[in-house]
Design goal:
The chain is α+β, with helices and mostly antiparallel strands. It contains 6 helices and 9 strands; from the N terminus they run H-H-H-E-E-E-E-H-H-E-E-E-E-E-H. This is Lipoprotein.
């Protein structure tokens, strides 16, 4: 009876302690320069790094890629933290009997044991999702040293620390260069800008999708609709304790399993999509729609005036 009471009290204390082990993971800091010990990433630092790498990747894009100059970036950042704790106590109540002795069979030990066990597991998670967009013109105005409105000091002049996870080199320059590779040199014909399909008369043979000044032509579509780059980091931390002891009438936790454990999993996802900015796309589609409906409006007005 005393052993059962002891087990009940010990289990209750353990469960109360477990309840205090798992709490909602802390929010990721907005400012900062390094990842904290709990795995959270300063969001402001991620924004700086993405803008600096996009600027570095697009500052020397050849002028012949006029369509690319009108593009922008949409960035989706997910910071996911999962914390878990569990306790699985087990005990055995032992009641040894006097050994059985037989002249013919020998001596045999006897006893009775009662195993008791239980378990509780708790999990807490937090997901932070941040989305922001930028166009290349904005990025170059902020980070180009020659720009009159540059804000490079706010971005630490893009001399960002080289850490781990999202605080490391994201490789955006290599990514953009590899994507534009099919457009270079003799392979340019693989993905070449084509005139938009419309009901207007065909353009003269000399029509080109790149103006001599290098400015993008509104009558051309980019050879690429959009490009996407995804990065994911996962960090798993765990700890456990497995004590074991044996007394005359009591045997402690089974050492094969952990008595208590705790862990945390941090997942950082970054998705960057490059494509025509909303403003450019909206203006182009609006102009195209107006060109298509203009004849219908003109005919409707003419019929109304003729009826009068």
């Amino acid at each position: 009876m005393r052993i059962a009471q002891f087990f009940s009290v010990a289990a209750s204390c353990a469960l109360v302690g477990l309840g205090g082990c798992t709490t909602v993971p802390a929010l990721s800091p907005i400012n900062g320069t390094e990842a904290r010990e709990d795995g959270s990433i300063p969001i402001n630092e991620v924004v700086k790094r993405v803008k600096c790498e996009i600027y570095d990747a697009t500052r020397d894009i050849p002028k012949e890629y006029a369509w690319f100059q009108t593009w922008g970036a949409n960035v989706d950042l997910d910071l996911i933290a999962n914390e878990s704790s569990s306790i699985t106590p087990s005990v055995a109540v032992l009641d040894p009997f006097p050994p059985f002795r037989s002249a013919s069979l020998g001596t045999f030990s006897r006893g009775f044991s009662l195993g008791l066990g239980g378990g509780v597991a708790t999990t807490a998670s937090r997901t932070e999702s941040v989305s922001f967009s930028m166009n290349f013109t904005e990025v170059h105005e902020q980070l180009n040293p020659a720009s009159k409105v540059n804000r490079r000091e706010a971005f630490d002049n893009c001399n960002l620390p080289k850490g781990r996870d999202l605080n490391s080199d994201l490789g955006l320059r290599q990514w953009i260069k590899s994507v534009l590779g099919p457009l270079e040199g003799g392979n340019r014909a693989l993905l070449s800008p084509q005139p938009k399909q419309s009901t207007r008369p065909a353009a003269p043979p000399a029509f080109t999708c790149r103006q001599r000044s290098g400015a993008p032509s509104a009558d051309c579509e980019a050879p690429l609709k959009s490009i996407t780059h995804s990065i994911e980091f996962t960090v798993v931390k765990s700890a456990n304790i497995s004590p074991s002891w044996t007394l005359v009438h009591f045997k402690g936790h089974n050492g094969n399993n952990s008595l208590a454990s705790t862990g945390r999993t941090d997942t950082h996802r970054l998705k960057i999509t490059l494509g025509p900015t909303n403003e450019t796309r909206s203006n182009a589609s609006t102009q195209q729609s107006l060109r298509e409906i203009a004849p219908a409006i003109s005919n409707a007005v003419g019929q109304t005036l003729g009826a009068r």
